[in-house]
Amino acid sequence: MVVKSESARVVLFLGAPGSGKGTQASWLSASLGIPTLSTGEILRAEAKRNCSESFQLRQLLGTGQLVDDATVCAVVAAWLKRENPRRGFILDGFPRTTAQAQYLDALLDELHLPRPTVLHLDVSTTGILRRLTGRRQCAVCGTVYNLVSKPSLRGSRCQKDGGALTQRDDDSEGVILHRMEQFHRMSAPLLAHYGSSVARIDGDREATALADEILDTVAPGRTRHLAAA
Ligand code: ADP
């Protein structure tokens, strides 16, 4: 019989676009000292390459449609093989379908990692649109800003390295509404799949208060470290 690593943790964020999953995942990653896998980040990096597959991927991401299960599962498997995160890891943006959740269950069993703690970041739709249309990202280092809630001290340039701040192709209003509708349609079966392992977190609060509750849920008693966001 194989004994699963007791100290390893797998944490998974479920939340609508703009719910703050990425920020919370990076803070939790710093506090627990385990890496984060963001499927959106990896797919966007893939889409920037100069080949016909990347061109197709770029078009798909730009319209806010989901990438097919086989491609995303292959991305996750390749990352896990490369990183070999024995102490666990955090997932941001995966799984998004029941097929992906089943794939993840099998993968975790294979790696002798525990089943995930699922954090459902529940945020009202009010304000999400405003948050997302104000989101900007440094084209050089990837730091995320917000024109309203977290502007760069250097205006339209990144305050860390002066890189141009750009808007994601899928952060336009029409595409955001489509992504939100898609999230609500797809999250119900996922919540059902995880059942009682889901912890609902009220996401309509200040980000650091949220981070405290998240850390307390995942690792009671641990002190929070804020990563350079
Ligand atoms: P958001 O949560 O704001 O939609 P992400 O960065 O998580 O942003 O994802 C951006 C895009 O990447 C998605 O709209 C989708 O096209 C693609 N994507 C990311 N993760 C997955 C996944 N697990 N399955 C299918 N598509 C995905």
Summed up, what is this model?
By secondary structure, the chain is of the alpha/beta class. The protein contains 8 helices and 8 strands; from the N terminus they run βαβαααβαβαβββαβα. The N and C termini lie far apart (42 Å).
Question: What are the defining features of this structure?
Answer:
229 residues; alpha/beta; Rossmann fold; three-stranded antiparallel sheet; 8 helices; binds adenosine-5'-diphosphate
Give a structural overview:
This protein is α/β, with parallel strands linked by helices and 229 residues long. The chain has a single domain (9-129, 174-218), classed as 3-Layer(aba) Sandwich (Rossmann fold). It has helices at residues 21-32, 39-47, 52-62, 69-83, 98-110, 128-133, 173-194, 207-218; strands at 9-15, 36-38, 88-92, 117-122, 135-138, 144-146, 165-166, 198-202. The strands form 2 sheets. It has a 5-stranded parallel beta sheet with strand order 2-3-1-4-8, with helices on both faces. The chain has a 3-stranded antiparallel beta sheet with strand order 6-5-7. Adenosine-5'-diphosphate (ADP) binds next to helix 2.
Fold topology:
Blueprint: E1 9-15, H1 21-32, E2 36-38, H2 39-47, H3 52-62, H4 69-83, E3 88-92, H5 98-110, E4 117-122, H6 128-133, E5 135-138, E6 144-146, E7 165-166, H7 173-194, E8 198-202, H8 207-218
Helix pairs in contact: 1-8, 2-3, 4-5
